[in-house]
Amino acid sequence: METQLADLIIFNAKELLTLVEDTTVEGTEKDKKLGLIHDGAVAVKDKKIIAVGKSDEVIKSVRIGKHTYQIDASNKVVMPGFVDPHTHLIFAHTREKEFILRHQGVQESKILKEENTGIISTVRHTRKATFEELLEETKKHLSYLVDWGTTTVEIKSGYGLNLEEEIKMLKIAKYLKENTPIN
Fold first, then answer.
1. Of the candidates 80, 110, 131, which is a domain's last residue?
2. Statement to judge: residues 117 and 59 lie in one domain
3. How far is the C-alpha of 84 from the C-alpha of 46, rounded, in Å?
4. CA-to-CA separations, 13 to 57, 72, 147, in angstroms, rounded
5. Strands (E) located in 46-161
6. pTM score, whole prediction
7. CATH code where residue 74 lies
8. 7, 46 in Cβ contact below 8 A?
9. Which sequence ranges form a coiled-coil region, renumbered to this chain (predicted)?
10. What is the predicted pLDDT for the residue at 74?
11. What are the distances in angstroms from CA 96 to CA 74, 103, 142, 171?
12. What are the tens digits of pLDDT across the range 80-138?
């Protein structure tokens, strides 16, 4: 069988987390359950993993050409991306004040009497925001997710509470799907 030419190879990972139980993995029981490979590598072709294992083994098992993108992951952890199946990323008002009050044990009825707290406050601010303002704010929220390893996200609407506002939010989600690298 001819070895495949890799489009991407990530090698020398201090730890490569496969999340596939492997009793042949060296290390603790936990390492085996997580499929944790020390000095690991992963090779990719056409967006599909074609080899995974110890760096020296993967490098020998694939062809690396002049156009193969190579990442030296020395002292790094390589792991699958996070998938967030339920987010409400499109909103124009944060609620940390409410969070702090709850954490302090303040009763819900008192929190809702505070200015700019509660879901209704978020709805009010979200409705007031323009498409462009919401889009820019949501891009920031999305970039935080990407920075922390999220590769796939489902964006739900919900803060519009009427047809016109919900459609505005869905258009923002569609724009982000078509114009950002995250799924």
1. 80
2. no
3. 24
4. 13, 7, 19
5. 48-54, 63-72, 77-78, 82-87, 150-155
6. 0.71
7. 2.30.40.10
8. yes
9. none
10. 98
11. 38, 10, 18, 27
12. 999 999 999 999 988 888 899 899 999 988 888 877 788 888 999 999 999 999 999 99
